[in-house]
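Retro notes, item 3 of 5
We never archived the inputs for the adenosine-5'-triphosphate complex last cycle. Fixing that now. Sequence and ligand:
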Amino acid sequence: MTQSKTNETLALDMRGIVKEFPGVLANDDVDFTLCQGEIHALLGENGAGKSTLMNVLSGLYRPEAGEIYLYGEKVELHSPRDAIDAGIGMVHQHFMLVPTLSVAENVVLGDPSVSYIINYEELDKQIGDIAEQFGLDIDPKAKIWQLSVGEQQRVEILKMLYQGAKILILDEPTAVLTPQEVTELFKTLREMTASGRSVIFISHKLDEVLEISDRVTVLRRGKVSAEVVSAETTKAGLAKTMVGREVIFRIEKKQSEPGGVVLEIDKVNALNDRGLPALRNLSLSIRSGEVVGIAGVAGNGQTELAAVINGMREVESGRILLNGVDITNKPATISIDAGMAYIPADRTGVGSAPSLSVEDNVIMKAYRKPPLSHGWSLDLKEIARYATDLVKRFNVKTPSIKTQSRLLSGGNLQKMILARELSREPVAITAVYPSRGLDAGATEDVHERLIEERDRGAAIFLVSEDLDELLSLSDRIAVIYEGQIVGEVPPDDDRIEEIGLLMAGTAVASSSPAAG
Amino acid sequence: MQLKVERRLEVPGWMSLLAIIVAVIAALFIGGILLAYGGLNPVVAYKQMFKIAFTDKYSLSDTLVKATPLLLASLGVTVAFRMKLWNIGAEGQLLIGAWGATLVALFLLPKDTSRPVMLLVMVIAGFIGGGLWGLIPGVLKAYLNVNEIITSLMLTYVAVFFNNYFIYGPWSAGGFGLTAQFPKSAWFPRLLDYADPYPYFRGMTAHTGFLLGVLVAFILYALFKRSQWGYKTKLIGDNPNAARFAGINIRRQIMLAFLISGGLAGLAGMSEVAGVVHRLQESFSPGYGFTAIIVAWLANLNPLLVIIVAYLFGGLLVGGDAIQPAGIPLMIQGIIMFCVISASLLTRYRVRFVRKDKVIST
Ligand SMILES: Nc1ncnc2c1ncn2[C@@H]1O[C@H](COP(=O)(O)OP(=O)(O)OP(=O)(O)O)[C@@H](O)[C@H]1O
Ligand SMILES: [Mg+2]
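Structure as it came back at the time:
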């Protein structure tokens, strides 16, 4: 492909990029090209080096070797500023917006050409125009803290467009989006390519990749393992080049054999971060040996529900029982000791301590008890053994157990959290977006582990925005809308429509109402 | 050509160390310019300082004396800083620790109490005094999220007036700003006390407080490395949300950290009155609690390094005392702190030259 294109149509040509970190060769002689007007997807297993390659392109990392050509001209990018000036914009997975400022203010932040006295009327109009041109539905006057994650992402994209990005890099943009928001994002991306811009798109969701991209480059262990035209490949084919083996997308599981009630949520009311009601009189019970999936549009209380069950958020009223023990508003140690595992949605903000080692991170819930500690003191040898074992069993790719967890790739960080939570034979598991950021192989792995836990007798509370994941794992699906369970539907492909209507708050369930 | 300053993504470990060394050298250099401006030959002055602080056995002992309160107070500061609690009120905690020890030595225990009992109770009282003083900002932080920098600093001034009330009022010896001298049983053993069997120790005033400090440093080192408490401290310091997620009671840990932090600073005060001044008197501390912050920071919050850095700073104080004008050590300390902070900020950036017309050099 690369050779058949003439230099003029190539927006970007990266040649022989090498980037090494202590203990890992993250990019090993990578060639990557991007045509003008193209959407080029970058695929690869967790830790394959995708983010690294894009960080090189956006001026964050300096490669050890390799050259970058933009529109035929060789460039050296020393800093993100250089990259922006050269027309390269990157939207990272963690947004970098100022919550108390407005959309327009955030967009012009860092633009040296804006004068000290801002003409807000003009600015809002200018930014509104760009937003409209690319179909980005956003109010320039809104404050960032009022926006949903999807809207914040639009602000990031808007910012890049305002700064004149001709090449836009999106690192796993859809991981945090609802299906509706994904559709909107794709519309925007098509607008952008229609106007001659180019897009690099990283995702682990193969369906999306096939839908939106023109070409796909697959990275494997830092090397390019394939470069294909999207129209000429299939989901299974992509998965195989990525992982190196066949991947099953829907796991086989036997009929569940639910036992007694393990987790009982009784008429719970709770507030969200802004002090508004997030859960209203919500009741739900989960029995041992079953997976209850929660379907709902983001922001309807599912993350708050997960936090409440795990002692991370106080309830205003109502009760939560774990195996008959009242854990309402009790410290998290109570539910941890009672055998609760929690895979939180926010893995860097809550689920891990970024500057601590992998070892320190995996013992977070087990350090208080033997064999990891005796009385006051920690058994360092035992801890190292424990951590090494978990890293191996859960296939976490890390140079060593002493590596800081912030240096792990997104997917490997998630695996580290899964290792910590699932290794303790929990009686109940709260899993919020458990496969977010995981590659196809790792997702399959997590699904299998969750089902294994179910069959062992754990009660599993699953929150996901991925309907396929919900349908494939759940034994029952409860739909949440505005902080209430509005219906319960069996996980049947034919019932998707019904689930969708319930999620939108427009229908009443035909089957049994919420369990109480 | 144009200068561009860019943010560095990763700061290599060796660079932090280099930054500290460069900062200290720069500070001595700047200090030298100021010395020269004041009419002193900086080379001669520094030589003199070094000679006085580190060369003969008496000055080595004097350096140990000055290093002792620095060591204990720095260890206290280290405990709080490790949890990212900015306790900058060690000076106040030190003063109240000294007050507590004085209370025991002069008023609570009879004069003829045996030395070990007397000193042990004084150590406990010093720790509790400083600890409770530290606990005030701790409680305010834990329950009301009041900024601990402000409260701990302000409480230092309260502590000064608190002590002044006692030494000029009820505890005053004849209306001066000092109490009566402690009974001998309340004195830390000094090297010179052993001059009879070992004449070598004659005239050396180093006292048991330093050993206490070294002991505490090793205990803290072990606790940080291999205790549950050390682990919790580390976790809260890095990500309080994750700590909460792990089931740690953050409020309790904040208060405990302030209690220990203040308690160790209190021990510094206790050791100063029991080992050096043998009474409570006005301004017996030339700001050890503040210098302790610089020491802890230079030692990278490592208790064992604190021993070394505290010793070097003790030398700076001793050497500085010997040359005139007397403000020199304080000035150099200030410059060192300034340089260290600037240097650690600067390590996060790199400077690069680019041609003006082109931002992207080809
Ligand atoms: N700053 C860093 N320091 C050290 N190692 C790093 C750093 N950044 C990334 N790595 C390592 O480089 C490898 C590639 O990481 P990268 O983040 O590029 O993976 P990725 O393909 O984006 O994976 P994922 O799909 O999980 O996000 C990983 O092994 C990671 O641990
Ligand atoms: Mg990544």
